[in-house]
Amino acid sequence: MPLLEPDRKALRPGAAREPAIDRVTDRSAGGTPEPLRSELIALLGADKVLWKISDLVRYASDASPYRFLPRVVLVPEDLDDVSAILSYAHGKGREVVFRAAGTSLNGQAQGEDILVDVRRHWTGVEVLDDGARARIRPGTTVLRANTTLARYGRLLGPDPASAIACTVGGVVANNASGMTAGTTRNSYRTLASLTFVLPSGTVVDTADPAAGEELARAEPELCAGLLELKAEIEADAELSARIRTKYAIKNTNGYRLDAFLDGTTPVQILRGLMVGSEGTFGFIAETVFDTLPLDRRVTSALLFFPSLTAAAAAVPRFNEAGAIAVELMDGNTLRASVSVNGVPADWAALPRETAALLVEFRAPDEAGQEAYEVAAAEVMRGLDLVVPATSVTNAFTRDAGTIAGYWKARKAFVTAVGGSRPSGTTLITEDFAVPPDRLADACEALLELQSRHGFDAAVAGHAAHGNLHFLLAFDAARAADVERYDAFMQEFCALVVDRFDGSLKAEHATGRNIAPFLEKEWGARATELMWRTKQVIDPHGVLAPRIVLDRDPRAHLRGLKTIPKVEAVADPCIECGFCEPTCPSEDLTTTPRQRIVLRREMMRQADGSPVETGLLDAYGYDAVDTCAGDSTCKLACPVGIDTGAMMKGFRHRRHTAREERIAALTAKNFRLVETSARLAVAAGDAIGERGGDRLLESVTRLARKAVRPDLVPEWLPQLPGAAARQLPRTTRVGASAVYYPACVNRIFAGPETGPVDLSLAEAVVALSERAGKPVRIPDDVAGTCCATIWHSKGYDAGNRIMANRIVEAAWGWTAGGALPLVVDASSCTLGIAEEVVPYLTEENRALHQELTVVDSLVWAADELLPELTVFERVGSAVVHPTCSMEHLGDVEQLRALARACAEEVVVPDDAGCCAFAGDRGMLHKELTDSATAKEAAEVTSRPYDAYLSANRMCEIGMERATGHPYRSALIELERATRPPGR
Length: 982
Fold this sequence. Notes:
five-stranded antiparallel beta sheet; 43% helix; six-stranded antiparallel beta sheet; 982 residues; alpha/beta
């Protein structure tokens, strides 16, 4: 055992608490039982079988109000694995549920037996026919697919609000649509072909001309059964007409019975049935979409009305004017969205009865845009609008930033409203559709129903398509609250069906909470046909039981999850999963959502229970140690939950008093530490040059085992040599800014890429002088730091010492804030500008407010570049934006600098946090390996002339991942603007 092994008990919740009614029971503490575990390991290999109790718990929750513990979680890599799983389940009488992003709102991604993760190894986009079509693997997010297609001026038809996280496979399986898809741009209408695996293991590619013959040969009973059902439906004229009527509006409740009317062969029928089948008919292994034009000329407005019914009444007029989107938000939604960064603060005081419409027109050219704007102006003349806050303009705009802000508020509906719910309450998200001309009546009826049942709910929706969404919050631990929810659901379903002849699920798919009401909407005849269809395709009931079809009238009340209170920073989390695609440890250990889910399960447990002990045993490495602490999860989360900060807090809790004292001592004596580190790097570089990399790796690995892996870095051959002892000479006279070289650039040298390349500090000084805006480097920067070293590790005492030191020093260097402070590492800029603030004394907070902290990228792009002449560009450059740049909003400046240096600039579609995170890439190199894998594959698929970033440790991480020497864009800019002959 390492000498400084952290105390696992330090993370124990500790407070006396009653075990929750839905806690994981002690009999599951050992994880996957035998012989299930060993049989699946023998079948697939140990790396594809997740069996620990922590694995099962983190997969037990999704974005829905339900929670079911799987017996095992499998991570297949290819179709052979999937077929083997299905064959095993069939032979053993087991059940299988497929899960991708886990953003489904009705429990479709949860199972009680074998759960199969089909996200991790199932990503990829292949553009076909110059963008007219795209072949997309099921684990690819909608956002990632559209990012690639945007280069071709195309996009996918479905556009769910969860596009940042939801996967294409899930979108097809649920027939999720979104703001603009309606009934004409959804998956059912825009899919060109599918490849899927049936419950029997048979693989069908609907684009294959021989698919029909092969399916008939492999599955004769299935083919005969489908054709029999088709004939029966077509023979019933009344039923056929009813089916067509049901799909005239948005409807994802039950199976797509119109597939029997639209398809003529078993393959065509299956292609239609797979859409919206929620994983109950097979595994969608690949999709080919017909893409749609990306109309880039956009005009939008956020219009405020005195009431929800007044807003709804205006919807048909905008539809007639050609709006592609008309989104409705009620007062509760508008007020809750204030928690979203960028939303006007004065919305918090909006009257409860206020409502708004987000209206958008899109056109391919200027003429089309102007025509839409004329039509919109005509509609506006007849509207009764209100101005309930000073920020309200009630005007159409073309400004991209303003429009993005409107959509950010709208798309955050579930998470923003859910995040503001009372602590400890479960969130139910429902959606339904009515004929668009009945929308106003439906809004009024819904509000009355909510009020009568005591729900202070929020309402929003795709008003153009008669599609409303609403939220209900209640305490699933209280029987009275559960019964209140049940009473509401009974009346709600009767209201939608009997009064409006609507759809109980417009785009979220049936799921567990509407399955008991399927017959209420469709009637006995159609519902029985759905049961028979399931029997034909999955006769042994292997796939996803009880998710679409369930005869239990109280099935919607089974498995409701309690939400125990956790640390304040994470307590608002509704487990939506928006954070997961941005997380560097997503494919290695846990995601931000899973870190919170595991913590909540600890809180459900009795203190010291076997389950709590098992979770704590894994949590240290899986959650705390392998969190990069980059806080990109905060950027992705609509309500800004910073799980990275939570993990830093846990690191602090694990520290002993002795460790905190040592960390504080290093901060007090950082000048000596800095010098020693530079000497150590130089010594290591010298040994490495003599072939001693393996020796250094072995020595550091032994030290890590003896002391603690999270404290002792591992030597990496990619580490550069030591920086020069002396910084460039500068003068105070005439300086336009104070230049602060970060300690990482005072310790590590840049990459050795050319005989005349300058160091980063030399490049910044030369560029500034060349542009007529010279900078000054203070004489006493040694021994100072942005404090991120201590902040990232949770050493609060050391963090406090260095945070106050750097602010006091910067205030003096800049003459009390008279000059800007230019910082040459984006993470350090973020540290000084924002992260030090909570650790400052009251006096130093006042000093900090007077400082202007500028990232060197911004300084170069905004202040220097306009004054520089580019003499020589390289042909191509690939750029790695760092997570700190994302926080600072500096990515566009990095692009601008790269464009000045290269004819072609590429930002990889899979660019993300490299997870090197200071020294974390040396403490847990497997974290950086996992985080950079997709981006590295993209980068190494072709050669580039330059590999650019703007943070030395990130550059090291990317060099390790790709084998190419990354360097600062400022060094490349200096080379590009250097006068010939110099």
